[in-house]
Design a protein that fits this description.
Blueprint: E1 2-9, E2 16-23, E3 30-39, H1 42-48, E4 65-72, E5 84-87, E6 90-92, H2 98-101, E7 113-114, E8 133-137, E9 142-143, H3 150-153, H4 159-169, E10 177-181, H5 185-196, E11 200-205, H6 211-217, E12 221-224, H7 228-233, E13 238-243, H8 251-255, E14 258-266, H9 278-282, E15 287-290, H10 296-309, E16 315-318, H11 323-331, E17 338-342
Parallel strand pairs: 10-11, 10-13, 11-12, 13-14, 14-15, 16-17
Antiparallel strand pairs: 1-2, 3-4, 3-8, 3-17, 4-5, 5-9, 6-7
Helix pairs in contact: 4-5, 4-10
Bound molecules: NADP nicotinamide-adenine-dinucleotide phosphate (NAP) and zinc ion (2 copies).
């Protein structure tokens, strides 16, 4: 066990502050990663403030991790010391259920182990990437290209795969009119991927000041959702809507923008449930669906796609001691478009 520096929430009402944790010794299948950058996901805020219930404290958040391998176990064949590596939202799963066998470990029937705010198979708490090192099983570790700016790669491990996966699952591409709702960490990656796949992309935002950025990110249109006339004019216009909204809102307002047979996929997880009116669905045979991150195989495919197409996240690099301010800014939708912690500030 090696003590290492981290940042943690001690309770749901305490700020994120310096904390020391221990990582397990490197086992035969493990890699040890010297963390270089860790993205700040809105899920970190939900969980650190126990907005979803069941949070485990002390909590070291962070599931958008990139770094360099400093040690490998004696049975590790897939990684070498000195290589870049990434860790996303989970670090283990049962490995035998139908979802795991189908490379969709995020939907594991019994034992997906989250990167933080969870317990591993031995019952020990898992700690995330607001820390200087992590030890992970090679099977749940990603290869990261040397070609891209590393701080921009970190958010791909959650914001990237969470938007890539549903766009792929629903075969979004040329000829589709797509709306991305909420231009934050997830939303801005959704725009990049949907545009790269050839769709006609509209950003639906509560922040008029983000229009210029939305177009620069690859969107073709921008609309402010607070404007009733605009929302009315968009009714029945979209084949596919990806909603990344992190706070309480009315689903019906967005469902009504779908065309005949259109689908809205929810990836944002507001703490409170929302009411859906049957009329929002039946009139045009619409579907409402959800999607959770992505499996290891698809996450690797997404990282490789990004390396090939030069796609990274637009980031604001921060020091670890800025984290509480970063949370406050995210809650005000003031993030352009992902905060990423420079882990050198923790060493
Ligand atoms: P974020 O960077 O804070 O972005 C959220 C955006 O939602 C804001 O920038 C804002 O965009 C919009 N928004 C906020 N409050 C709103 C409201 N009341 N009404 C309408 N729009 C609002 O958050 P994120 O990191 O992208 O995460 C978004 C959500 O996805 C969170 O709930 C997170 O927990 C969840 N998540 C889910 C998965 C999954 O696997 N399903 C994975 C990761 C994260 P505008 O300024 O453009 O309106
Ligand atoms: Zn996340
Ligand atoms: Zn499983």
């Amino acid at each position: 066990m090696t003590p290492i520096n981290a940042y943690a929430a001690q309770t749901e009402s305490s700020p994120i502050a310096p904390f020391t944790i221990e990582r397990r010794e490197v086992g035969p299948q493990d890699v040890q990663i010297d963390i270089l950058y860790c993205g700040v996901c809105h899920s970190d805020i939900h969980q650190a403030r126990d907005e979803w219930g069941g949070s485990i404290f002390p909590m070291v958040p962070g599931h958008e991790i990139v770094g360099r391998i400093i040690k490998v176990g004696d049975q590790v064949t897939d990684f070498k010391v000195g290589e870049l590596a990434g860790v996303g939202c989970f670090v283990d799963s049962c490995r035998t259920c139908p979802s795991c066998l189908a490379n969709e470990e995020q939907y594991c029937d019994t034992a997906m182990v989250a990167t933080y705010n969870d317990r591993d198979k031995e019952g020990n708490p898992t700690y995330g990437g607001y820390s200087t090192q992590i030890v992970t099983d090679q099977k749940y570790t990603l290869h990261v290209s040397e070609k891209l700016a590393l701080e921009g790669v970190a958010p791909l491990l959650c914001a990237g795969i969470t938007t890539y996966s549903p766009l792929r699952h629903w075969n979004i591409g040329k000829g589709h009119k797509v709306a991305i709702v909420g231009l934050g960490g997830l939303g801005h990656m959704g725009v990049k991927f949907a545009a790269a796949f050839g769709a006609d992309v509209t950003v639906l935002s509560t922040s008029p000041s983000k229009e210029k950025d939305a177009l620069a990110l690859g969107a073709h249109h921008f609309a402010v959702t607070k404007d009733e006339a605009t929302m009315k004019s968009l009714q029945g216009k979209f084949d596919f809507i990806l909603s990344t909204i992190s706070a309480q809102h009315d689903y019906n307002q967005y469902l009504n923008l779908l065309t005949l047979n259109g689908t809205m996929v929810v990836v944002g997880v507001p703490p409170q449930p929302s009411t859906v009116h049957a009329f929002s669905l039946i009139g045009k045979r619409r579907s409402l669906a959800g999607s959770l991150i992505g499996g290891i195989k698809e996450t690797q495919e997404m990282l490789d796609y990004c390396a090939e197409h030069n796609i990274v996240s637009d980031v604001e690099v921060i020091k670890a001691d800025y984290i509480n301010e970063a949370y406050e800014r995210m809650l005000k939708a003031d993030v352009r478009y992902r905060f990423v912690i420079d882990i050198a500030s923790l060493k």
